[in-house]
Structures are given as structure tokens and as C-alpha cells.
UniProtKB/TrEMBL annotation:
GO terms for molecular function: cytidine deaminase activity; protein homodimerization activity; zinc ion binding. Belongs to the cytidine and deoxycytidylate deaminase family. This is cytidine deaminase. InterPro entries: CMP_dCMP_dom, Cyd/dCyd_deaminase_Zn-bd, Cyt/Deoxycyt_deaminase, Cyt_deam_dimer. Residues 43-176, 206-328 form the CMP/dCMP-type deaminase domain. Coiled coil: none annotated. PANTHER family: CYTIDINE DEAMINASE.
Amino acid sequence: MAQRPNLLSHFQNLVVESQNRAMAQDKYKFVFTANEAASEGVTEPIRLPKLIRKAMSLARGPISKYKIGAVGRASSGRVYLGVNVEFPGLPLHHSIHPEQFLVTNLALNSEKGLRQLAVAISNDCIEFGVPCGNCRQFLLETSNEVDIKILLKSKHEAEGSFGKLKLLLPYRFSPDDVLPKGSPLLLEKRDNCLILSRSAGEICSSDCSHLKCKALAAANNSFSPYTDSPSGVALRDEDGILYRGWYIESVAYSPSLGPVQAALVDFVARSRGKGFDKIVEAVLVEKNNARVSQEATAKMILDTIAAPNCDFKVFHCDVDFQKSILVNSDR
Ligand SMILES: O=c1ccn([C@H]2C[C@H](O)[C@@H](CO)O2)c(=O)[nH]1
Ligand SMILES: [Zn+2]
């Protein structure tokens, strides 16, 4: 008989432990299926704020101490979180805003469009806001930007309402002003038809875990229609987990997001709270003599934030013209 309470409490401890583990796993979640979002209270777009506290808790703002979160619903019905990310030791323009984070994560997850977006800052209470000018401009690059709706909600309103992005940026310099009609925009399928240059050594044909192959695959998704300088970055952390991201350009140039930042979006979204100093290996793939080269900036960022002995390599790529003719004739 004396054993029983012990057994019971042992069992209870196991249950509590596994519940805690599940909660800890949830804590770092950046992507929710429609069902998962509904179980968090996001049963319809106007309820996106139900996930805003979670988003803000994941912010990485060691310089400003600001915790800014974004919650967005993609056209697939999945719900994504975005956060502000700051890098101590680096110039401030390398920081990532939550809306940029969110759109980059949509691209990394092959989403086709953003539908609704809520943004908030945590002061004493939660205050909903709207994307800054830079992010409004960045959002214009997505293929369905005319469908994007932003939550407009003052402190005194219980629910608020959605307003179109066009309402926030009525006089715009948009991709349509520069790109030929029908050019694929951000979040549309792309293949830059890049292959590693001969100097990059052995090239794998199947899916492998070489960082250079991951970075090449990333560069093939890169959105660089204004300068034709696609690039991709792959990272490895000390536990061997890989992350990748690609350069995303803006027609207004300065809102563009570099390939290291894009890979860091993947890192923040999937590393379960690890610090950037856990990154031990990095590869950048870009064109030789690219009009916009990322090499010096990538090295500078990684030298500042990654593990002190982080190995950084650059491989060059070229366009596979035969493939490019095939891909473009399909369009
Ligand atoms: O509209 C804004 C203004 C600021 N920030 C972030 C950037 C930085 O991390 C911190 C301080 O500006 O807040 C945003 O995300 N959106
Ligand atoms: Zn912004």
C-alpha cells in the first residue's frame, strides 16, 4: 500500500513532464495549420490578435528591448508569426521587422500569398499598429498585394476592422512600374536556373546535406528581378540542423532583405530559441561578379553574430542557359 502514492505521483510527474514538453515545443511555434490556429482562438481572420502575445514573446530585440509581433494568415489558411530581430554590434539597418520576417517565412514555406495581417507592440498593454513605410513598400513585392488586408484597431476598439494595403500606401512606386508585364512576383514560383560553377567542385544531383547544395537551391528561389543578382545562404548549427534563406529585392532597393537575414528568419523560426552564436558553418552562393554582391556583408554579419570559429565559404554559380530557355518557354 505504501508504494501506491509513490507510483501515482511518479505517473503524475510523467504526465506533467510531457505536458511541459509539449508546451515548451509550442512556445517556439511560428507556423500554425488552420486547425492549430483555431485551437489558439484564431477561428476567423479578425481573431488574428489571439496569437499576437505568442508572436511578441518570440521577438529578439536586445538593443531596443521592443517586442513587436505580427500575425498573418496565408492564402493556404495557415497562420504565421513574425517578430522583430536586432543584432547587437551591427548597424541598425540590418535589423528585421516582423512583417518582413513573416513574408520571408511565407516564401520559405512556399506560400502563395498573404491575406490578412495584424501587427502589435507590447508596452504595458498590447497596442495594435500598422506596418511602417519600409514594410508597406516591401509588402508590394508579393504577387497578391492587392488582396492584403491590415488590421486597423485602436486601443478603444474591441475588434477593429481590416483595411487594404493600398489604403496605407496610396501613392506607390510598385514592381509594375519597372518590371515587364507578367513577370513573376514574390511568392510566385521561380527557378533562377543556377548551377554551381566548375570551381565549386563536386555537384550533387540528389537531395543532400551539403551546405553549398542547400545554398544553391536557396539561390534558385531568390527574388532579384531588379538587378539579376540572386543569392542564397545555408547555415548549420552546432547540433547539425540546417537553415536556408534567399535574397529578396524591393523595387525601392533599400527595403530589400539580404540572404543572411533570410536564413536567420529560418533559424529564428525553427531553432527553438537558440542564440545566433550556435551557428557554426555558413555558405553563400551567388553569381561571380554579381551586380549586387553579398559576400562582404554576409561575412561581416556572420563575423559579428555567429560562433567565433564559424566557417564561412562562398561558392559561385552560373545560369544554366539550356534549362533557362526551357523554364522560360513554359511560362
Ligand atoms: O514600425 C516599426 C517600428 C519599429 N520596429 C522595430 C524595429 C526595432 O527592432 C525596434 C525599434 O525600432 O522596433 C518595427 O518592427 N516596426
Ligand atoms: Zn516595418
